[in-house]
Specification:
Layout (H helix, E strand, L loop, with lengths): L10 E5 L5 E5 L4 E4 L2 H10 L10 H7 L14 H6 L3
Antiparallel strand pairs: 1-2, 2-3
């Protein structure tokens, strides 16, 4: 979430075999969507940005190297959510 930087608010987008999608955000809220496009649109409205889309210009604007940003990982949702608290 760009507006919260340098705090890293994150959301995970999953797409399922039936093409439905789910967003889990860092406070543990889950949102379901009929497709990935709807989920992406919703996340953009909340000012989430796909980390992979950041480039050198964004890095300069943020004022820190992207390599210093650690993407949260966990074995399950509880572990992921703990990384935000």
């Amino acid at each position: 979430m760009w507006c919260s930087f340098p705090n890293l608010n994150w959301a995970r987008l999953r797409t399922y075999d039936d093409l439905s999608a789910e967003i889990l955000d860092c406070d543990g809220s889950k949102y379901t969507f009929s497709n990935e496009e709807e989920a992406r649109y919703s996340s953009m409205e909340d000012e989430y940005t796909q980390f992979e889309s950041f480039d050198e210009e964004d890095e300069q604007e943020l004022g820190m190297p992207l390599c210093l940003i650690e993407i949260p990982k966990g074995k399950n949702e509880k572990e992921l959510i703990k990384k935000c608290m």
